[in-house]
Amino acid sequence: MPEMLPLRDPKSLQRLLAPRSVAVVGVSAEPTAFGARTVQNMADFDGEVWCVNPKYAGQMLHGRPCFASIADLPGSPDSTVLALPRAGVMDAVKALGAKRAGGAVIYASGYGETDMPERAEEEALLRDTARSLDLPLLGANCLGFCNHVTRVGATFMPDYAKMTAPAGGVGVVSQSGALGYALMQAAERGFAMCHMATAGNATDLDVCDLAAFQLTLPECRSIALVVEGLRDARRLLALGELARRHGKAVVVLKLGRGETGAKAAMSHTGSLAGATEAWSAGFRRAGLLEVEDFDGLLETAGFLAKAPKPRARGVGIVTPSGGAGIMAADHAEFLGLALPQPSPETEARLRQAIPEFGSPRNPCDMTAQVATNPQLFEDTMEAMLQDPAYACVVMPVVYHNKQTTPVRMKLLEQMAARTGVPICVAWVPESLEGPGPEAVDTAPHIALFRSTRRLMNAIRLWLAFHDERPPAGVAAAGLTLPPGDVTLMEAEAKAAFAAAGFPVVDERRAASPEAAVAAADALGYPVVLKLDSPDVAHKTEVGGVQLNLADADAVRAAFARIEDGLAQHAPSARMDGVLVQRMEARGVELILGARRDPQFGPMVLVGAGGVQAELWKDVALDIAPVSEDGAMAMLRSLKSFPLLDGFRGAPKVDLPAVARAIARFSAFAASAGERLEEAEINPLVCRPDGCVAVDGLLKLSA
Prior knowledge:
Number of domains: 4
Number of strands: 30
Largest sheet: 7 strands, mixed
Structural class: alpha/beta
Oligomer: single chain
CATH topology of the largest domain: Rossmann fold
Radius of gyration: 31 Å
Number of helices: 23
CATH architecture of the largest domain: 3-Layer(aba) Sandwich
């Protein structure tokens, strides 16, 4: 892959995205036109706003002075919105460069998104021209940006001035303009926002550059990021590192998760490590927190903006409804969250507060008596908040009273602020709006969710954000690979893996039955015979694997069965003979795979292996190379991990040896780099005395 373009220095985007003067080029008198709406959205901005249109030069337009051209402006604008057709954009960009402007927002569409080659060339020329002029571009084909700190509404969406929430909290970055502004509109209900920017075509600045700028804003506590695609997804890793240094969370939603670009592959890895899985692995490696749906994006980012570092791992649940408590507990358990019971001291306090028909446990059922006994509510919440086992307390609200609910939400805010323990409100009523939800949205220490499932997932991501991430691995040094486009089947592939320090099974090649017997005699019985053919990737599908052969006669018979199976199922395939291997002791079978992803480069996969690999699809994926700690984290994420760890009295495998093998395999993949197409070990047999590769495949490009 070509060298990654570094993230744009946030300081270089200060004038564009946090301007003190704004020019709008292409403003007309029509109040609903894009230029006019942009000027109207500057109603609360106390900096200079200049209109540009020769038709109205010397006049006041929408309350702002209008000039004939960019050259006639009384100063160098920090940020310029080009509300122009595509044909006028290039000349305007050149004029802004001559004026030493701070950057430009391009609304115009009709560039590379049209799939017309000449328009893509025009867009590339626009990018090169702007960069030569040191003029950052937002867009083209974008909706603009909003800076809620300085009240700049550099967008053609109407009514930005009505968004009255205080500046702070969450920054929004989206390739899609409409989705970005949809999130920004949460400010209308009091949700604290600091900045919103849309990348559109990302002609110059992409979502990573924009998010990096927002991370430097002191008002920004977290970012909600919507990604469609990137020219180089490795930039997400740089963004994640910047977010880590700032101690701020980036919550990300990937649009276009379908496998439309997937291609058939020779190995199991090709079908197990698709594009969706690669993006998710990239987000995890970067430390970005992925949500699966749009509804969860702002809720999660809002919670991360409010929540401090967790003091524990447990989740406490307090509710006046036993059913709502059970529902919350179900979602917590589905996501692997801990629900510890109250300490004896806390339980004693709860028993004093709660009626005997309630439950002083976790979930804690206060019963409907809280409707007539406010002190019951306060005492119960206070007891749970002070129990050190709980990182946060979940409060499902099951009915909405416009008089008492806002008061109770304000009480929760005071308790969360005093104890330093965040409170998550699960809003169950179908009356979705009103003073109750608004009281939570505007509160700095409690968070609102309209889905209990999304609430628990946000808690899971919050805990993961504060976990220590394993370091990246180191690629192998001095790797020697055969030249050209080449596919190495089992013997040659395992030889390449062995040269990189990977444990592989001892084997012999045999072109005839008698040669196979001689090899078996040398290795010791029992043995395995495997078809040796450059034309067959999955040998079991043609009867090409014969197991547990105890003597010479069994070897001869197995050789014949392999010949017959190949003739029946793949008559055109070549047979170079067989591979003879010592029959390995039984163990837990894993698959190790690697492939070169077009976005992230070499990636490594580990999962339940053998012939059932694609059936169970129990896999973990990461960017290569991974460290031994990272490999261990991959193993522990598998549903089948208990099989490795002594399930039901079975002997535990040598987990450090397996993690070491995964790290070496990933280093091999990373070192192969651009030449790697596919690499696979299946199965990797894991036992208490170590692990060994039994089969392999390696496909390289020139």
